[in-house]
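Narrative of activities, Objective 1.

The group set out to show that a structural description can be obtained from nothing but a protein's sequence at a throughput compatible with the screening campaign. Below is one input-output pair from the validation batch, recorded exactly as produced.
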Amino acid sequence: MNIKFIRWSLCAAFLTSISYAQEIDALKVNQLNEVVVSDTKFEQKREKSGKIIDVISTKDLEARKGQSVAQVLNQVAGLEVNGSNSSAGKNLEYYIRGGRSRQVLIIIDGNPVNDATSIASTYDLRLLPVEQIEKIEILKGSSSVLYGSGAATGVISITTKKAKKDKLSGNAYFNIGTQNTVEKTNLNGQEFNQGFGVNGNNGKLSFNTTLNSTEVDGFSQATGDNFERDYFSRINLNQQLGYKYSEKLKLDAFINYDKLISENDLGAFQDSDVDKYDAEQVRVGFRPNYKYNKGEAYLNVAFANLERNYDSYSSWAMTTDETYYKSRTINADLVNKLDLFKGFHLITGVQSQFMDMFQTGAWGEVDNKTTKFNVVDPYFTAVYNNDFGLNVNAGARLNIHSEYGSNLVYNVNPSFYLEKYKLRLLSSFSTAYITPTLYQLYSQYGNLELKPEENATAEVGFEKSFLNNKIVLNAVGFYRVEENKMNFISLSAAPWGQYQNVENKINAKGIETNVTYSPIEKIKVTANYTFTEVENEDKLLQLIPKHKFNAGVDVVITNRLNWSAQYQYTNQKIDLFYNSAISATQKIDLDSYQIVNSNISYKLNNYTSFFVGVTNLLDVEFVEKIGYSTRGRNFKLGVNLQF
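Output recorded for this entry:
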């Protein structure tokens, strides 16, 4: 037991009881005045949106200091992030509305991000430190009309921090935390996060430079006795530049570098001292934006180069297999918003994407000279708002793929806002698609005859304010149909397997509801509930709870002292486990569980603030995925400096 760490913990806890916390603005009770971007690609008031868009603001992130991006997202209605409470290096899986990670599109500063070297092409959110994030919007439902491939069940749109206005400033932070499971507990510091940022703006030129790093001497990914601890580290550098030529024209650019190293285990219940994973990514991009009399236009361009190395032990050959992956991705999205007349604007655009992939090593050779494709998608969305409260969002996109041809998707999203009753009525029908990945098309198991997966989602809902907007309640019911799912099918001859479209349909239905209550401006209570049910030929809903409930409270104790707590109930889930002893896959029922997190922060002066956070306060034992460890009670202490 580390005596210095215990003394620091007691000292920090004592200071929180006698010092002031960071001063924050009064809580915003009227959420309908919030500005959102996700459902139009341009800013608009939330009351004119035809969707329930979950927003994680800067204040929400402050109230959850010490939690990862995955842990914060896992508290959103309708969103399950498996692995968020596992070891730091455990891969993450995202589930929205009964869909898989492949059906969730992640966007950073307007640019879709992915890992074109992976089978599912899913972006790894472990690469992104929460300290670089300003705001997150979660748009659920089929959204391919605006965002293209992958936006089948939801879009997670992340906005990173930008330069502040008219000042030169900076910040630095350091925090230290524990790495405990329920079985193994100590108060030694085994997680270290640190970073700094400098930003400035003289009215014309702006810049923001941030550097973040993380080192974790974590617990074993796999569950078992006397398994070794698995190390995780990450470093991130983000440089943003902006130039405002005039009130009408501005240019933003960025360069981002991420590096991740993780020690892995062989799999469920299997330890390893040789398995290792590292990833290195460089992203660069720019965005010119031009405003004219009746509209606005911008061009989002981004390039990403991702390289991965994976060392894995082969128990069959008793050797270490080494595999190297590399991919390049280019995205260009030209978007124009034209105000044709009062209350009606037309959004038109064309998006072009290019991806290639290279692979060499034990798992086969893939040459990027032939393993590539490009996509060109013209699209439009018409938005109408009138003074009586009617809002209509409707559009279509033509997906033109270099391999399988073309595919048309569309959406219709009418809504009505009754200002007198503070009531918003919502409905929508939308379709989406998912392109086959490079691996599914060109690997030794690939199939150039693959068709895109197709999704269609219908939803209805409402949002209502009560007691002069002190209570805001919303609820959405949805029904989703999935066709042409791409599965790996075993074959009786070489290559012994192939990716194919399966004929059966998958139907998903559910309810998502949120309530916010602010009895006074310094207290905010939130709660959400999600019901999800999926039907397919096996009647299985793997790793997705049928019922899930979250609640939270944020309290401004004084003008400077803040306290928050979050509660989460996750219903039992189904997992699949390959039992080598009987050479068969078994269905495993994972028990339901409850978790409580808490955080308290204060500001010592205008330049220094502290926080103390605890996750899994009750030290509950639970399983996220069979055969893998989960986090017990863990503490984190941090200091933030402003200059």
